[in-house]
Amino acid sequence: MMSGIEGKVIAITGASSGIGEATALLLAERGAKVVLAARRSDRIEALAARITEAGGEAVPVVTDVKRRADLSRLVATARERYGKLDVLVSNAGISPISALDDLRVEDWEEMVDVNIKGVLYGIAAALPVFREQGFGHFVHTLSTAGLRIVPRMSVYAGTKNAVRAISEGLRQEAGESLRVTTISPGITETELADSITDPDAKSQIQDSMTKIAMPPGAIARAIAFAIEQPAGVDVGEIVVRPTAQS
Ligand code: NDP
Predict the structure, then answer these.
(1) Sheet of strand 136-141, all strands in order from the earlier edge strand to the far edge
(2) Residue located nearest, by CA, to atom 41 of ligand 1
(3) Which of 11, 153, 184, 210 could bridge to 35 as Cys pair (CB 3.0-4.6 Å)?
(4) Architecture in CATH for domain 9-239
(5) The complex's ipTM?
(6) Do β-strands 87-90 and 237-240 pair in parallel, antiparallel, or remain unpaired?
(7) Catalytic annotation present for 156
(8) What's the mean pLDDT in 112-141?
(9) Which of 95, 116, 144 gets mutated to test ligand 1 (max ligand atoms within 8 A of its CB)?
(10) Is the Cβ atom of 14 under 6 angstroms away from ligand 1?
(11) How much is the CA Rg of the chain, to the nearest whole Å?
(12) What are the Cα distances from residue 120, in Å, to 67, 149, 205?
């Protein structure tokens, strides 16, 4: 019997590590054809090979979400290779957090470019295709940082809450043939802290990751849950935290 995932063509940004990688592995295991997007070509090529060797289907597409043309190419590759695109998981993100007083303006700009504009470019690439097909599903990775604002996280939380607003508007405009899901992970053990340039903030996050983080598979399972629902059912918002997170 076809599951709600089997046979679906699912493009995932940020597939080279952490949540995106775990999501790609789980969805491929459940029969999806996954299109793997990230800048690190070695990582997504190795992941595609791993999935293929296990009997799954995957194609890597080197993608910088800061470039609109890359997102267009990602969606085009999915259609050329597999004939359609069922789901775009816009998951790529960075969190170079710091206090506003530090004026790490380049980090602010980078977060806006990757976390907000990267998602918008995904919408620009996939929405016309979803309209033409008459079906499609956007999944956007937000953060619990957007639900409870704490010092050093204001710009990061702001980018995630911008995407929350965009996603809700998209859902309202989408009509009954499209689905829009946001998922807000709590602290998850990934490489996310690598992008932090403020040493204090970096050790704060690394400390939390060591003490209470969930494995990224916890988020992958929640994304799979949203995708496997029947066409008329839209899982709007999911929050998944470690029980130890305040
Ligand atoms: P990772 O650092 O492990 O993964 C981030 C992914 O984003 C990588 O695959 C990276 O690939 C990709 N990425 C970063 N910049 C770009 C870019 N310009 N173009 C394309 N891809 C890019 O962290 P996570 O798995 O944790 O992060 C995934 C999402 O989860 C992010 O949106 C993050 O904000 C969110 N999140 C994470 C939490 C956590 O505690 N880990 C908590 C809440 C939300 P590459 O460098 O190869 O391009």
Answers:
(1) 57-62, 33-38, 9-13, 87-90, 136-141, 178-185, 237-240
(2) 188
(3) 11
(4) 3-Layer(aba) Sandwich (3.40)
(5) 0.99
(6) unpaired
(7) yes
(8) 98
(9) 95
(10) yes
(11) 17
(12) 11, 23, 27
User: Which tokens go with 193?
Assistant: 């802290």
Ligand 1 in reach of 188 Cβ (< 6 A): yes
- Which residue type is seen at 48? A
At 1 the pLDDT is 40
Question: Where are the chain's structural domains?
Answer: 9-239
Predicted local confidence at residue 3, as pLDDT: 61
In this prediction, residue 241 carries a pLDDT of 97
CA 94 – CA 107 distance, rounded (Å): 9
- For the chain, what is the mean pLDDT? 97
CB burial readout 101-129, b (16+ within 10 A) else e: eeebeebbebbebbbbbbbbbbbebbbeb
The answer on pLDDT for 2 being more than 60 is no
Total length of the chain:
246
Instruction: Give the distance (Å) from ligand 1 centre to CA of residue 18.
Output: 7
Give the mean pLDDT of 182-206. 95
Identity of residue 194: D
